[in-house]
Amino acid sequence: MTGLSLIALGTGGIKPCVAAFGGDQFEEKHVQERNKFFSVFYLAINAGSLISTFLTPVLRGSVKCFGGDCYALAFGVPAALMIVALVVFITGNRLYKKTPPQGNILLEVCKCIVFALRNRIRNRSPEIPKREHWLDWASEKYSNQLITEIKMVTRVLFLFIPLPMFWALFDQQGSRWTLQATKMNTDFDLSFNLTKCRPIKKMATGMILASLAFAAAAIVELKIEENAMPIPAPKESYIQVLNLADSDVELTIEGYDLFRQPIKPFQDPAEYSRLILNSNQQFIQVKIQHQGLSSTCNHSIDEMSVHSLIIYKRGGNLTTNIIEDMQKKPSEGMAAVRFINTLEWDINITLGKEEFTTVNKSYGVSDYRTLPRGRYNNVKFQMRAEVSALKLGLLDFGASYTIVLTQASTEALQAWKIEDIPANNVHISWQIPQYLLMSAGEVMFSITGLAFSYSQAPVSMKSVLQAGWLLTVAFGNIIVLIVAQSAPLVQWAEFILFAMLLFIVFVIFSIMGYFYISTDPEELADKGNEHETSSSKNMIGLVTRKTKL
């Protein structure tokens, strides 16, 4: 919490000021050069973020600290580089153009607004003439220049009201889009002229591109879910049958019309069947017929669960065992594997130099273990004093496997691999269109917004308006939290919802932008000074109720 608090304080102090300070280095006649600066400034920010994305995991994982990943190095290197950057920044101190501070301008703005509102409320009498703008009611106490500047700021801040929705979509790149990427296969064996467009039109274009990006993400998510394991609903359960006997088995579950065809031994792939339960926990009766013999077993099934029913021989008779399966794909693109040992002795399994797991004898079942995706062609199995090496083949992204270890009387150890949850079959390159659309939208929206915020702000309120611009990012994150908590939708539907919300905001923002008249802060300030002289003459003899702040 201490680190997060310091980051919040530091970021809140530097972000509104650094863009405004950079813009102050250019004279008003160098508008084109100033706009180029904001582009380079934004490029530098994103370049640093990109380098950190690649470098931080390397620093953390390549060096060991205190017996684990070296987070001290991963955080220490950026801290040291920040100190170097601070020294370089201070070195150029004499070269900077500095605008003298004019006190706590934000406090003055708030006082002026409160005074204007209170003065307007106290002077509601029809006898008192109306004024052109509600902020003009602060003219008894505050200068006309300050009032004019606040008018400029409030007009731009009003235009910022719809903007958080863009950031609500943009900032999901690091959360929902990243989670989407973990469910994909990561194996790798528009150009048009907008230079003459108004800033508001560019920002509106960025919104449309971001909305299209989320529509593309929804299409990708739908394709991913086609291959996903069905999640049991309440009063539902899924079951698959693994026949480890030496011949076909006829199986029936009392009360269910399933498994009409005989189940072949070591049938691959096994398929899940849905059970509709009468309660949250139910006993099922399983009847097995095999080579003229029949047997009955009872098992307990919980709702919202996935199971494998194992059929095997013991003492010349068939029996069953039911085990719970993994319901969701392994996280972060890993592969999950478990073993069933049909032999009469324990088996120790070794991957490389590390002992992976031990599987108990007589149809013992190991827990699931996750592994990085890869080909495992030299897995060692130790049975008593005998060591065997088997090829498990490719354990793919996001797949779950059950591996049955068997051995005939005269044969070597064998492994039968069953894919319980299918591997990720949608390639991660399908995310490229949505990232291209979002990146293009970011360029159109964010860089233009930075320059627009600076150009429309009075000299004394550049940082104030930059802070207002950054607040739209914070409110965007709040929108994500509210929508995610209040509307628990499936992922693709949530993407569509955000895309539609941003499109609605695009329409609203376009209408607001159509009526917005861009102003030059210096020209408006000069007009304000002229108006102050004339209005002060008109105010002679005007009596209003006294307002105290």
TrEMBL record:
Database matches in InterPro entries? MFS_trans_sf, POT_fam, PTR2_symporter_CS
Q: Show the GO MF annotations.
A: symporter activity
Which keywords fit this entry according to its UniProt record? Answer: Cell membrane, Glycoprotein, Membrane, Peptide transport, Protein transport, Symport, Transmembrane, Transmembrane helix, Transport
Transport as a keyword of this entry, yes or no, is yes
Question: Membrane-spanning residues where?
Answer: 38-59, 71-91, 152-170, 203-222, 466-484, 496-517
Q: Name one Pfam family in it.
A: PTR2
* Cellular location(s): Apical cell membrane; Cell membrane; Membrane
The UniProt entry, under Gene3D superfamilies, shows: MFS general substrate transporter like domains
The record's similarity note reads: Belongs to the major facilitator superfamily. Proton-dependent oligopeptide transporter (POT/PTR) (TC 2.A.17) family.
From the Swiss-Prot or TrEMBL record, give the protein name: Solute carrier family 15 member 2
